[in-house]
Amino acid sequence: MHRGSRYPRRMVRFTVLASGSKGNSTVVSGGRTRILVDAGLSCRELFRRMRLAGEEPETLDAIVITHEHQDHVNGLAVTARKLGIPVYFTEATHRAWMRWLTPRRKMTYAQWLEQCRQQAVAREAEADAGATEGEADDAELAVGQEVTGAAVREMGAEPVALKDPTWLPAVEYFEAGKAFQVGDIAIQTFTIPHDAVDPVGFVLEAEGVRMALATDLGYMPPNVKTQLKGLDLLLLESNHDLEMLRDGPYPWSVKQRVLSRVGHLSNDAAAAFLENEYDGLAGYIILGHLSESNNHPELARVTAERALSARASLLANHLLLAEQHMPLVPVCF
Ligand SMILES: [Zn+2]
Ligand SMILES: [Zn+2]
């Protein structure tokens, strides 16, 4: 679906809007297609940052979700409804997201399927009625909040959202480990070791440019290493410094979770990958999902630089750091 754009047709851009435990979101543009990978900030903030970075929210064609953790889905429903665009998930992630939004209602699998069926019928009815997207304001729904008529009118959402906070304009499923296509962007998915129901990373390819997102992973398993080859850009997690985490403010149980095989990648683990396994081809390496409590940007940068400098052939890589509180300058190809 092309919504018209003033950008030149042949231009691939990768714009990190936010990265870290308070929200993750990246815009990838290629050919005539623009997609949002994760929607971890409020819709209002996502739109503000897109405009800051020179991207027009109205030109987004789809939202693609890595996993159901809050820092990746916070603004998902409002953003999808406001733009009237489809959301791509795995089925298990969609189901977990719906459970998260309706925590007071325990759903069996059969009930969940019935809810999906009813939503599909509602979507068809909306389409038949030639429903147009609402003129929307930016009100957000908190998790589990009752959806009132006023809230829906404020959101500009379809009337069906009145009864159902999990309603989306369109849902598309992909399978972890398989590839799919959104317009001009080809997306290869790969399973990552993380404590979500069906978490994935992505390699996105447009106009021959290959860009990977690999954050939220406890370690680097062989299937991930295999995917992170022949890239032009790699967004790689460099979540924590091991000593800062050990001595830091988190309770013991949370430290164990972060350190576990389904937690987050440390500076040292990212560096070990860059030094020993990475093929050195990507012109851009972006370190992401840095912890604000257990890391320091300079520490992450120095650790990665040391790893890259250990191999002279890798010195040509540009090393960037994604930020939590502002968008990164778009990387253009
Ligand atoms: Zn996560
Ligand atoms: Zn995360």
Characterise this structure.
The structure is a single chain. The protein has 333 residues and is an alpha/beta fold. The chain has helices at residues 43-52, 70-73, 76-83, 91-101, 109-128, 149-155, 222-227, 242-247, 252-259, 267-276, 297-309, and strands at residues 13-18, 25-30, 33-37, 62-64, 87-89, 171-173, 179-182, 185-191, 200-206, 209-214, 233-237, 284-288, 318-321, 331-332. β1 (13-18) and β2 (25-30) form a beta hairpin. α10 runs parallel beside α11. 46% of the residues are buried. Bound molecules: zinc ion (ZN) (2 copies). One zinc ion binds at residues 67, 69, 194, 196, 216.
Structure described in brief:
The protein is α/β, with parallel strands linked by helices and 333 residues long. The protein is 31% helix and 20% strand. It contains 11 helices and 14 strands.
Write the layout of secondary structure elements.
Elements: E1 13-18, E2 25-30, E3 33-37, H1 43-52, E4 62-64, H2 70-73, H3 76-83, E5 87-89, H4 91-101, H5 109-128, H6 149-155, E6 171-173, E7 179-182, E8 185-191, E9 200-206, E10 209-214, H7 222-227, E11 233-237, H8 242-247, H9 252-259, H10 267-276, E12 284-288, H11 297-309, E13 318-321, E14 331-332
Helix pairs in contact: 10-11
Question: Characteristics of this structure?
Answer:
single chain; 333 residues; alpha/beta; 7-stranded mixed beta sheet; 11 helices; 14 strands; 31% helix; globular; binds zinc ion
